[in-house]
Design brief:
Strand content: 15-25%
Oligomer: single chain
Bound molecules: nicotinamide-adenine-dinucleotide
Radius of gyration: 29 Å
Largest sheet: 8 strands, mixed
Order of helices and strands: EHEHEHEHEHEEHEHHHHHHHEHHEEEEH
Length: 497
């Protein structure tokens, strides 16, 4: 069997359930090509549902457009799915025998440099690697549901995976906005699920013993320590509980209660039919008013809100979002074209409408029009030589007047481009007409007419721009001299025809 080289941005997802679908959505929205293999007859619909939710939420975490969405396809076999993939994520049900079978098939067909990640919640990498042909590239990459929003991926390689492979894996996870947490020593259920298991056992006892209902347990979490944990975790939170005297004081003060007979951690209540029914009926009473799909959307919106609050403070999971933004941020190249095209306006920005730009009507909100046209103008100013030096020593172009016209509705995630046409320029004035178009069909969405005045740094008054700058402006003006003057130019507000 000959192996094709791994395509650097193709991911294969083996098992497209809750977790595989979430991985697929994250990779796709970060611009990767994704190929899924899942024999379930409803797999395509399930993945489509997850992807639908992800499209509503993941872009809302970023302040820069995500790359164009990658292409999604479904393969008829593991072989077809993995050939050419750089990252293969196994997300089949949690059964060791099944995972071994699937991993062996992946290994047989994957390109030699591909990384094989497993979503397993419980198995150690050494268990997955047992009898594998290439154990050195099989590692646990354990995510959290919803994979497309929560940044954490626990990365566990065990002894078989070398630093270079682990490093490459972490690099890829970071490139899709995740935080790879390298688990230094393999252990059943890694780090996070150990806690969840402990909390889960206590919760089962509290219900079994009629101390609390499912709803009361959830209140105890989400109204209190859940909020603390989301932003500081366990130890930083307790550090504060110790006050000025710090952590050592905290432990000395609260340590002894660990030996009180509070915990039943070592014991598990038997999951009798009666206990299962009790939990299920309490849970129906608590949450049955919403469908699972509704709850997923509520969860996603809440997570976006919480994560964005953390992002504003550059803290915890929010700091990971900031780092992801730095990857997404592109500085627009703003070189003066050698020949300015005289057949049409100058094409300027390529952009996409971020979820944060949308108002209560579901359309791009008013001030974002101003921002888009202002960013377009900034690009022109950089092109003609108004850099930081020029502003510090000579002057700047000030906006004197603008008139924006909304022509057609602009929706979320729409790809747009802007153009500009110089209507008139002299040594002190620039009269510009901007247009905003839909990238998909060039439809005109908005226009803006603006007048700028050149103001001197020292004088604070209108004055002539530097000759170099004027020469560049002139080249664009001359190229635009033959273009038709748009018929809305010079109109006052309300005059549409
Ligand atoms: N659900 C969670 O919250 C969660 C969180 C983190 C990790 N995990 C882990 O992720 C893995 C998948 O869990 P899930 O919750 O997505 O399960 P799931 O049941 O929702 O999805 C499993 C999918 O695998 C498919 N499948 C079964 N056999 C297959 C095969 N031979 N080849 C390809 N696909 C096959 C099934 O059709 C199904 O769509 C498990 O290892 C689990 O421990 C789950």
């Amino acid at each position: 069997m000959s192996h094709k080289g791994a395509h650097p941005s193709t991911a294969a997802i083996i098992g497209g359930g809750v977790i595989g679908g979430g991985w697929a959505a994250r990779f796709l929205l970060c611009g990767w090509r994704v190929v899924i293999f899942d024999p379930h007859p409803d797999a395509q619909q399930r993945v489509a549902d997850v992807l639908h939710n992800a499209r509503q939420s993941l872009p809302a975490l970023a302040d820069f457009p995500l790359p164009p969405e990658g292409e999604l396809s479904f393969a008829a076999s593991v072989e077809d799915a993995v050939s050419g993939a750089a990252w293969i994520q196994e997300s089949v049900p949690e059964e060791l025998g099944l995972k071994h079978k699937v991993i062996a098939e992946i290994e047989a067909h994957a390109s030699p440099d591909a990384i094989i990640g497993s979503s397993t919640s419980g198995f150690k990498p050494s268990e997955l690697q047992a009898n594998a042909a290439t154990p050195g590239r099989i590692l646990v990459a354990h995510p959290f549901n919803p994979v497309y929003l929560l940044p954490l991926a626990e990365v566990v390689g065990g002894d078989a995976v070398d630093d270079d492979t682990r490093g490459r894996a972490c690099e890829i996870l970071r490139s899709i906005g995740m935080l790879p947490l390298v688990v230094r020593k393999e252990i059943d259920a890694h780090i996070a699920d150990r806690f969840l298991e402990a909390v889960w056992r206590e919760a089962l006892w509290l219900i079994n013993d009629d101390v609390a209902t499912t709803a009361e347990i959830d209140e105890a979490i989400r109204m209190g320590f859940g909020l603390r944990w989301a932003q500081m975790g366990l130890f930083e939170t307790y550090r504060l509980a110790g006050g000025e005297e710090g952590m050592a004081h905290f432990i000395a003060q609260f340590g002894p209660c660990l030996s009180w007979p509070w915990t039943k951690l070592m014991d598990v209540p038997e999951l009798t039919e009666a206990l299962v029914d009790k939990i299920a009926s309490q849970s129906d009473a608590q949450s049955g008013a919403h469908s699972i799909r509704e709850l997923e959307r509520i969860r996603d919106r809440n997570l976006v809100g919480i994560l964005r609050a953390l992002k504003a403070r550059d803290w915890g999971a929010g700091a990971v979002l900031r780092e992801f933004d730095r990857q997404l941020e592109k500085t627009e190249p703003a070189d003066m074209p050698a020949d300015v095209d005289s057949s049409g306006p100058l094409r300027m920005l390529e952009l996409s409408v971020l979820p944060a730009w949308i108002d209560y009507n579901g359309h791009m909100t008013e001030f974002r029009y101003v921002q888009v046209f202002s960013d377009t103008c900034d690009k022109l100013l950089v092109m003609i030589g108004m850099d930081a030096d020029y502003v510090a020593t000579t002057g700047a172009w000030y906006t004197a007047e603008t008139h924006t016209m909304q022509v057609d509705e602009i929706g979320v995630n729409e790809r747009l481009y802007s153009t500009l046409q110089i209507l008139m320029s002299d040594t002190k004035r620039l009269h510009i007409f901007y247009r905003l178009h839909a990238a998909v069909d060039d439809r005109l969405l908005a226009t803006c007419e603006a007048m700028y005045l050149h103001v001197g740094k020292e004088s604070g008054r209108v004055c002539e721009a530097e000759p170099d700058m004027l020469e560049k402006v002139k080249r664009i003006s001359e190229a635009h001299a033959g273009l038709a003057i748009p018929d809305t130019v010079g109109r006052h507000v309300g005059q549409r025809h």
